Amino acid sequence: MDTREAIKEQINSHPVVLFMKGTPQMPQCGFSASAVQLLSACGLKNVLAIDVLVDPAIRQGIKEYSNWPTIPQLYIKGEFVGGADIMRQMFDSGELQKIIQEAQAENI
User: Fold this and answer.
1) Per residue in 11-47, pLDDT tens?
2) Domains of the chain
3) To 5 degrees, how large is the angle CA 32–CA 46–CA 83?
4) Cα(65)–Cα(60) distance, integer angstroms
């Protein structure tokens, strides 16, 4: 399986996927830390967090897959949501909480 197929499989097999630098327990950049905090504040119980620092092919591949130049990147129900700044805007408007609750409800 090539990198693009592996990324697509992960995104489509899990309701919430976060490509980040580090892990939720030990984020390796401020933007990834912010993304984890926002998801936690939304009450997210289950997220597949993928540390892009472990695999350079995934790190570059996710940028090409989404056509988005930065990490972290959030996917919910197979759809690209955005990075840390977009997540913050969506959280502030209440939209992020809503789509996370919907994703969790569908997978209970």
Assistant:
1) 999 999 999 999 999 999 999 999 999 999 999 988 9
2) 3-106 (3.40.30.10)
3) 30
4) 9
